[in-house]
Amino acid sequence: MQHSNIFDYKKYRYFKLAVIVILIAFAAYLLFEPAVGHYGGSWLGYGLGTLSAIMVLWMAWYGVRKRRYRSRGATQGWLSAHIYLGTAMTVIVTLHSGFHFGINIHTLAYGLLLIVVTSGFFGNYAYMIYPRLMTENMGEDSLDGLLLRIAETDKLARQIALLMPDDINNAVARACRETYIGISLLEQLRGFQADCPSAQAVQQLTVLGNDLSLEQRKLYRDLYSIMVRRESLVKRVRQDLMYRARLGFWLYFHVPFTVALLVAMLAHILAVFFYW
Amino acid sequence: MINCLLIKVSYNSRGVLSRSYRTLTAEEITIGRGAECTIHLPDPRLAMHHAVIKRLDDGQIHLMAVNGELEVEGAILKNIALTNGKQVMIGPYQLKVEPAPPDVNITVSLVLVHRLPDDFQDLKARTHEPLRGASAFKRRLSLWMVAFIALVFLALPLAQNLIPKLHDAMAELPAGFDRVWSPGHISNSHRHFGSQCFNCHEVLTQKVTDQACVNCHQNTEPHIADPALHKNVFKSTSLFSDGIRCAECHREHKAPYPLARQDNAMCVKCHGNIKAADAKTTLPNIQDFDHDHPDFKLTFITGATEKDFERIPQTETTRLIEKSGLKFPHDQHFGKVQGPNGILDVRELSCANCHHSEGKEMRFKAVSFKRDCFDCHKNQLEVGSSEAKLSVPHGAEQNVINTLKVQAPKEMLHYSESLKVGGCAYCHEVVETKKEDALPWRVAPLHINQDWFRKAHFNHASHRTQQCQSCHQVEASESSEDVAMPDRKSCLRCHSGNSPKPKRIASSCMTCHSFHSSHAAHDGALPKK
Q1: Where are the alpha helices (DSSP H) in B339-440?
Q2: Do B47 and B68 contact (CB within 8 A), yes or no?
Q3: Which CATH number fits domain B2-116: 3.40.50.2020, 1.20.120.1780, 3.40.50.300, 2.60.200.20?
Q4: Choice among A210-214, B51-55, B60-64 with the minimum mean pLDDT
Q5: CA-based angle B147:B150:B156, to the nearest 5?
Q6: Exposed, middle or buried, B336 (CB in 10 Å: 0-12/13-18/19+)?
Q7: I need a labelling partner for B337 at 20 to 30 A (CA). Which of B234, B278, B452, B516 fits?
Q8: Burial letters A188-220, b for 16+ CB under 10 A, else e
Q9: A31-43, pLDDT tens digit by residue?
Q10: Vertex B343: Cα angle to B338 and B346 (nearest 5)
Q11: How close does chain A come to B49, measured CA to CA in Å?
Q12: Is pLDDT above 50 for B523?
């Protein structure tokens, strides 16, 4: 039995740390209010800003750290800290802003940070939900295993369909030839294709099976059950693809916006000191 | 009857060609995947009854489509004459008419040109990878965003600062590239030039200098008139500068907060230990209004010029006598009072009947005879018997005497005397004149105080929820010599010092005082007590 995951790593060590950091920041924010209200350039603002800049760099370093197999500390611990301290950092950065927003580099950097953090939350959610669903969906099978099984049913279905009237044969042949899996990004994320030939073939078969000879009728029953099994296999493959797409999709935002954030943060810091 | 030689061409697993020959004799030769067809081709891409070879009436042998399609050089045809050398695609098979030996009507060869692909490989090819090209996409998106941010938020503003030509060109426009560096709203008074940063931020990486402020604020006096004291007070506080810059107290980009600092720390820094700033001063140390603020001093006017005044602490109660030159008992002008028209004329008076507020801060207009007194006291300006009443104007004594001289020259002296002891003297101090004076008597000049707390400001508007009498107790005042200004204790009923107290609001120095005003540096000219 697995005892710890990224959330309760070392008995919520980083959760506690994050809570302490947030509490200290809030206390400082409430106690030391400058005469002109809170802003990033007060001493408290500089302190919170420096702290959050260091934390941003450290969070970004996680991207490098997780690709290294030999490094200090468990990757699980790093991820736990990444999630909890990243959340705490968002609070600190918000306090650093003093709730002043405008159309400028400073608010841009803040907005980018929010996008990074929000996408991170989605990633967090994805990794909480989808791995279990993936296992439930795939069972003992692998993706290639499923594809192989679909290919086998293809062969079987085609052989039976050779003896069937043209419209049934065509429907089966089309299902075998034209079933695509995960054509576009949208279909991968939805895990569903509206005009799937495999599903359409099953639909058509139910209608087409009416006027058949007695001999064909027996074969037709076999063919129908094969095609229904085939459809469910295709669905499972699509589901698997969907889970894997969803597991990776949030990184489309998390990673590029992190890079953008680093540059925006640099511009933000430089701008402040270029015009004191 | 058609006698047909069929040559089936196939390739074995090593790719070696093999031909098998068969003679078919039938009325018409059917082609399809159906088992009953003369030429049975088991391929799902063919129709059950795909095509038929038959002899037409004119003796020509034709290939005709039944349920499938026939293709000759890319064209889909229904009916094809099978002449020598003709090539027709039947589904994945190629049919070719070969030269016929003498004993048959026609010879055709059949080759499977398009094999069925391997199902697994084919399906795999149609299964797309999840998020294909993700890393390329992420890399591209990163690069574009980095390029955009670096250009718009770093390179362009920097270029504007570093390239003089670009700087001059941008100065013509309403805003420069560096506008995106602005950390907050600019105060209203600076907004008309605030979108061009270089107006204040003259040199990159240098703090805004006082010179940038003085460019516009040329006539601004120093905050403290005495240069030595000024230097002592505004001495260096930071490692990087040799004196306090304007911008250290006047903080821009903080709107809607006021431009100037409003906190106590700035005041208490000197006034908490005033001797350190100015050894000769007699001012006491003040940290907090609640604890160590001295009692108020009232400003009494002592003469006609602006400098004729004296500030007397409210603790010296015996000296708090206003010599205004006016006789006015407040107690007779408050509540129900007797009007001028007999015993039935009872009037209700309140403060606002005579004291009229004006402006946002509800300062009070000077009381005027015409507006506030005339209605009840017009008979004070009347002389003579009830049949021959004569009204004199309120104002300069010369006008009064002139009116008497013109209207009642005979009674002039008599009337003048009655005004001197009655009419004018009812409200005013009347003084005898010397012999050489043109007038027999004069009214003493009025010194009515309009501003008791010259060193502080008070906003009546913020106190409008209060009754006047809660601070100014005049109901019992019998003489205009009484001063009804509230003292520090009455302020402390609702106000506390730097920090709020139960039922008392926090009040900083700036609540009542202004910082050493640079616009009225005569501050220093006030006599130090």
Answers
A1: 351-354, 374-377, 397-407, 412-418
A2: yes
A3: 2.60.200.20
A4: A210-214
A5: 115
A6: exposed
A7: B452
A8: bbebebeebbbbbbbebbeebbeebeeebeebb
A9: 888 777 788 888 8
A10: 40
A11: 9
A12: no
Q: What Cα–Cα distance (Å) separates residue B136 from each residue in B140, B261, B414?
A: 6, 52, 113
Half-sphere exposure of B252 (CA within 13 A, CB side): 23
Give dist(CA A244, CA A190) in Å, integer. 11
* From A105, A143, A260, residue closest to B146, measured CB to CB: A260
Spell out the residues 6+ positions from residue A90 whose beta carbon is closer than 8 angstroms to its own: A113, A114, A117
Chain B residues touching A257 at Cβ < 8 A:
145
Q: Are B364 and B468 in contact (CB under 8 A)?
A: no
- For residue B134, the tally of other CB atoms under 10 A from its CB is 17
Q: What is the pLDDT of residue B241?
A: 54
CA distance B201 to A274: 9
DSSP A27-73: HHHHH---TT---TTSHHHHHHHHHHHHHHHHHHHHHHHTT-SS-SS
Q: Note whether ipTM > 0.90 here.
A: no
Contact B209, B279 (CB under 8 A): no
- What tokens were used for A226? 């094969």
In 3D space, the residue among B245, B261, B253 whose CA is nearest the CA of residue B194 turns out to be B253
Euclidean distance between CA atoms B529 and B521, whole angstroms: 18
- Interval B191-200: pLDDT, tens: 888 888 888 9
Q: Is the pLDDT of residue A6 over 80?
A: no
B372 and B352 Cβ atoms separated by less than 8 Å = no
The residue in chain A having the minimum alpha-carbon distance to the alpha carbon of residue B266 is: A35
Q: Are B295 and B284 in contact (CB under 8 A)?
A: no
pLDDT averaged over every residue in chain B: 86
Evaluate if pTM is beyond 0.80.
no
| Of B190, B204, B239, B155, residue with least CA distance to A276 | B204
pLDDT for the residue numbered B520:
52
Q: What share of chain B is helix, strand, coil (3-state, %, to 5)?
A: 30, 20, 50
With left for phi above 0 and alpha for psi between -120 and 50, is residue B170 left, alpha or beta? alpha
Of B43, B126, B134, the CB nearest to A252: B134
Chain A nearest-CA distance from B126, in A, is: 5
So what's the pLDDT on residue B528?
35
Q: Where are the domains of chain B?
A: 2-116, 330-443
Give the CB-side neighbour count of residue B393, counting CA atoms within 13 A: 11
Tell me what pLDDT residue A4 has: 63
Indicate if the pLDDT at residue B418 is higher than 70: yes
Q: Give A 40-99 residues with CB within 8 A of chain B.
A: 40-41
- Tokens describing residue B48: 């059950």
pLDDT tens for B109-153 read 999 988 888 888 888 888 888 888 889 999 999 999 999 999 999
- DSSP assignment string, B220-255: PPPSSSSHHHHHHHT---STT-SS--HHHHB--S-T
Residues of A in contact with B137 (CB under 8 A): 252
Q: Which two tokens stand for residue B325?
A: 């030159």
CA–CA separation, B510 vs B526, rounded Å?
Answer: 20
Instruction: Enter the DSSP assignment of B44.
Output: T
Q: Is B56 exposed, middle or buried (0-12, 13-18, 19+ CB in 10 A)?
A: exposed
Identity of the residue in B35, B124, B153 whose CB atom sits nearest the CB atom of A147: B124
Name which of B44, B206, B258 is nearest A276 (Cβ-Cβ).
B206
Name which of B458, B459, B425, B464 is nearest B441 in CA terms: B425
